[in-house]
Design a protein that fits this description.
This protein is of the alpha+beta class and about 450 residues long. It has 2 domains: about 60-205 and about 240-275, no CATH class; about 290-430, no CATH class. Helices cover about 55% and strands about 10% of the residues. The protein is elongated, with a radius of gyration of 38 Å. The N and C termini lie far apart (about 165 Å). Residues about 1-40 and about 435-440 have low confidence and may be disordered.
Length: about 450
């Protein structure tokens, strides 16, 4: 069959036209796609992106949460040890330490607030390596306890710490026993666990410690420090503590965390490691003043003073004056702590019955006795009151010994000081007592 050249040409033309239209259409689609890619996303796309963001966070590995516990140091404010919460987040290039123990001694008014018991501390976020550097240089050991928190709990505590560490949130009112670097760590963990798991388990247990016994124990390497704590703390420091309250000491908190169990029976601490070895003197063991030794010492000193007075009355008077000067000054400090500061664990201190500002009334008479003269009637009245108050302290101790709320553990101070007060009274209040002036007096 012959071919019609005209029809064949028209068909070729139609094919060419369709091909051209297809190319134009394809270019139009590409152009429109490029334009779409350059336009900002629509509201629905923004919503999808926002919805996918939390999903991306959930898909990321959760942070590890640990508690770093630093052993006691040699400087007085390092005696109680220290701790911090560590957040090891894969999203960060290194673990972060959240340290609640920062203060600035050069801050305006710091000394005044310290004296009044109104100290301000702050939480600081810093790389763990930076936080550990000081402890490594000073020879203090560091223990790391990694916690078996689930993803929600780990993210919750990490987010809460990051928010708390912001400058506007970081400062807090510091309290030695009830709100310090260790109790802040304890409370943060308890909130992350939810349901008061930590508090319930620790409040039901006790080791019989008190704020006084722990303070004296940890301060025992420095005699001036433990004597100051022991003399200056009042009855509020002698109530038996639960392990929850014991946790104001970082090392006690670390020991308690090791014994806590999660609702499913697993231990809270999944790993317990030593980050830095301890190279200085170890944490002090149990330390408690023995009352009968102090009483024996008081009786010996009282006897020696009476013997000295028989041979050198002026020297004995000088020693008595020294005792009363120290007693009045210490009593003034204890009274100021009670009436003029927020150091509530020093309030109502019954050692004021043994060492009080009233001893200043004895100074003029002691000075006259030192010069070989009669001390005078006012001196005798003040001395009678002094020995009566010291005796009253023994009676108060006896009637409160069975009350955890009212008891003050100061038997050793009574045993040491009451015999000395009694010796002074015996020497100057006897009807036959007289001052024997030495030659040349």
């Amino acid at each position: 069959m012959p071919v019609d050249p005209t029809r064949h040409a028209s068909r070729a033309a139609m094919k060419a036209l369709r091909a051209l239209l297809a190319i134009v259409a394809a270019l139009g689609v590409l152009a429109s796609g490029a334009a779409f890619a350059q336009r900002p996303p629509t509201t629905s796309q923004e919503a999808r992106t926002a919805a996918e963001a939390p999903l991306a966070v959930e898909l990321a590995p959760p942070p590890r949460i640990g508690v770093a516990t630093m052993s006691p140091g040699t400087i007085f404010f390092e005696r109680f040890g220290h701790n911090a919460i560590v957040v090891d987040d894969p999203a960060n290039d290194r673990p972060l330490s959240y340290n609640f123990g920062f203060f600035d001694m050069e801050e305006d008014g710091f000394i005044g607030r310290f004296v009044r018991g109104e100290m301000m501390y702050r939480l600081v976020e810093l790389p763990l390596t930076d936080d550990l550097r000081y402890y490594e240089e000073s020879g203090r050991g560091v223990r790391m306890q990694w916690l078996a928190l689930d993803e929600t709990q780990a993210r919750s505590i990490a987010a809460a710490l990051a928010e708390n560490a912001k400058p506007e949130n970081a400062r807090y009112r510091y309290e030695y026993f009830t709100d310090n670097c260790a109790t802040r760590v304890r409370d943060a963990i308890d909130r992350a666990l939810g349901g008061g798991i930590l508090e319930k388990q620790l409040k039901s247990r006790s080791q019989g410690n008190t704020y006084r016994s722990e303070a004296v124990r940890l301060a025992s390497p420095a005699p001036w420090m433990w004597l100051g704590f022991d003399l200056g703390l009042g009855p509020a420091a002698d109530a038996p503590l639960s392990r929850w309250e014991d946790a104001y000491v970082p090392m006690r908190l670390a020991d308690s965390l090791r014994d806590v169990r999660l609702p499913d029976g697993r231990p809270l601490v999944s790993a317990d490691r030593t980050l830095l070895p301890h190279r200085i003197a170890p944490e002090p063991a149990e330390f408690q003043p023995v009352w009968w030794r102090w009483t024996l010492g008081g009786l010996v000193l009282a006897g020696l003073w009476l013997a000295l007075r028989a041979y050198a009355p002026r020297t004995a008077a000088a020693l008595a004056l020294g005792v009363w000067v120290v007693a009045a000054l210490l009593g003034a400090v204890m009274l100021f702590v009670w009436l003029g500061t927020e150091h509530r664990f020093g309030w109502a201190n019954r050692n004021l019955l043994l060492l009080g500002p009233h001893c200043a009334l004895l100074w003029p008479g002691a000075w006259r006795a030192l010069r070989g003269r009669e001390p005078g009637r006012v001196f005798r009245i003040a001395l009678t009151a002094t020995v009566a108050l010291a005796t009253l302290s023994l009676f108060v101790y006896w009637i409160t010994a069975g009350s955890a709320a009212a008891f003050q553990a100061n038997a050793h101070w009574i045993g040491a000081l009451l015999p000395i007060h009694a010796a002074f009274a015996f020497a100057w209040l006897r009807p036959s007592a007289s001052v024997q002036p030495s030659s040349g007096g």
